[in-house]
Amino acid sequence: MRNHGTWHEHDSAPHSPYAGLFSVLMLNSRRKGTVSLVGHLDSTEEGARRLIDDYVAAVGRGVGARPDRGQEEEPWLQSEAAVQETAPASFKAKAAYLRKRFTDRQITAVHDHLSRETDGDVDGSLWLVSYGGKVNTVPAGATAVAQRDSILKAVYMNSWEARRGNPEACLAWVRDLYRSVYADSGGVPVPGTVSDGSFINYPDTDLADPALNTSGTAWHTLYYKDNYPRLQRVKARWDPRDEFRHALSIRPPE
Questions:
Q1: How far is residue 151's CA from residue 53's CA, in Å, rounded to a whole number?
Q2: Rounded to an integer, what distance in angstroms lies between the CA atom of residue 110 and that of residue 1?
Q3: Can you tell me the distance from the alpha carbon of 193 to that of 208, in angstroms, rounded to the nearest whole number?
Q4: Which pLDDT tens digit goes with each residue over 174-209?
Q5: pTM for the full model?
Q6: Cβ-based neighbour number of residue 158 at 10 Å
């Protein structure tokens, strides 16, 4: 985790030779039993194979486990259009942006949580998704999304089948992991040196719950930062009666 985060600190710039790389470090609970690094890079890029080899070597440097590795080439359209079907299931996802790698304390919290023995069907994951590149060339106020200097996106998740499993235990697992990682900032990724709030496309009502968000930072600040007042004005113009709403929708201005 430390190698992976440090690498992204140095190689996520818009004009980096790795700007076209997409990868996900999948950190799974002990019950799943695997840690995977998956991704893709346009093979027509100059030195693409060397770039991948150097990236994998950097992430694995000093790690005792010897990894299994597989690699294949396929047409761009085929790779982008691929859809993996899975059985229907309920799930909970929580997210955060990272401006820098996790601190050593946070890495310890993740390790302790993922390596812990669990009962039943509790087998959640933390995915660290590559970010940065051209995304970070857009001004923070140009769109609704204000996070424009992040290097990674963290996704905390757990799922359970509708007819079996323990929803309460699965929810408790992912909430406890999230709260442990952000224990220094009230249980949520308050914008700061390392974190920069959360990703609205994984709407998480826990961020609006004062029992789970004790930071004093409002849920809409975690998602939209300084853009929220402007979004409220848009809401007032186009939906003054608040017809279109949900638990984390833009609130009309008071």
A1: 20
A2: 10
A3: 22
A4: 999 999 999 999 999 999 999 999 999 999 999 999
A5: 0.94
A6: 25
Cβ-in-10-Å burial (0-12, 13-18, 19+) of 232 comes to: middle
The per-residue pLDDT for range 115-155, each reduced to its tens digit, is 988 766 678 999 999 999 999 999 999 999 999 999 999 99
Query: What are the two backbone dihedrals, phi and then psi, of residue 160, each rounded to the nearest 5 degrees?
Result: -155, 145
pLDDT, averaged across the chain: 92
